[in-house]
Amino acid sequence: MPQLRLFALVLFTLLTSSVRAQRAPSPYRTRFGVDAPVTVGLLGVNALGLSLAKHKDGLTDAEALALDRRDVNRFDRFAAGNSSATAKRISDYPFYASFAAAPLLMVADGDVRRKFGQIGGLYLQTMATTGALFTMATGLVERSRPLAYNAGLDLSDRTSRNSTNSFFAGHTAATASATFFAAKVFHDFHPNSPARPFVWAGAAAVPAAVGYLRLKAGKHFLSDNLLGYAVGAGAGILVPQLHKSSGGRLSMVPIQGLNSNGHAYGGLLLTRQL
After folding, report:
1. pLDDT confidence of residue 4
2. Which of 4, 52, 97, 244 has the fewest Cβ atoms within 10 Å of its own Cβ atom?
3. Which InterPro entries does the entry link to (predicted)?
4. Would you list the domain boundaries of the chain?
């Protein structure tokens, strides 16, 4: 696939650059022999998850008509039936803009710019981690979106192919992953900067806004957004932290396979060398 070849080329360029970047001080330590297979494996899990999601059927007309908001758990029930094309459209603006946070930091910050290849490789690995968790969850879990409960919408909108992709919030997760990664890198490169609280506040606010808009749009329930936020923020912080030069000897590898019931699973395995 052309996309996979492009990913491989970008990965090779970034990670080989990161090896050269190790000649100068950096808060992170990356190794091509470790990080390249991990990132490629994560991209493979992404491909598997996307394939699973692609083959989902969505809701039938009868299933959509039978949906009852009273069957939704009390925590999420208030969102059942939400639908707003405006909120959906607006949510895309901070979503796509968030992907530029780390590249802008790599260009604008001289210290980070000198490690452009290394930080770029870590950014790719971070987003691949979030993507792997999201795509596998979407591919394996069927949860109707809040808008599917809206009897005022056309059935075609309530029964689209992705009408059961509510779990979990991918826009929120990806945005949090991008902004928290940028904040974490700034934090580690500038441990004494007085700007750090403001950087973290911005990193937290942008995905929160995206989550709110996706909630109003009827794309996800509150619990979907909270989980997406946690997954994205966790990846954005954890992936750089696992590569900290002064950190513990932790390693992260993607895993996938089939359980005893024949269902596919995927995830991340964290290990610590004793």
Report:
1. 44
2. 4
3. PAP2/HPO (IPR000326), PAP2/HPO_sf (IPR036938)
4. 25-248
* Mean pLDDT, residues 154-171: 94
DSSP letters along the chain, please? Answer: -HHHHHHHHHHHHHHHHHHHHTTS--SB---HHHHHHHHHHHHHHHHHHHHHHHT-----HHHHHH--GGGS-TTTGGGTT---HHHHHHHHHHHHHHTTHHHHHHHH-HHHHTTHHHHHHHHHHHHHHHHHHHHHHHHH--B--GGGG-TTS-HHHHSSTTTTB-SS-HHHHHHHHHHHHHHHHHHHH-TT-TTHHHHHHHHHHHHHHHHHHHHHTTS--HHHHHHHHHHHHHHHHHHHHHTBTTS--EEEEEEEEE-TTS-EEEEEEEEE--
Least confident of 37-41, 156-160, 268-272: 268-272
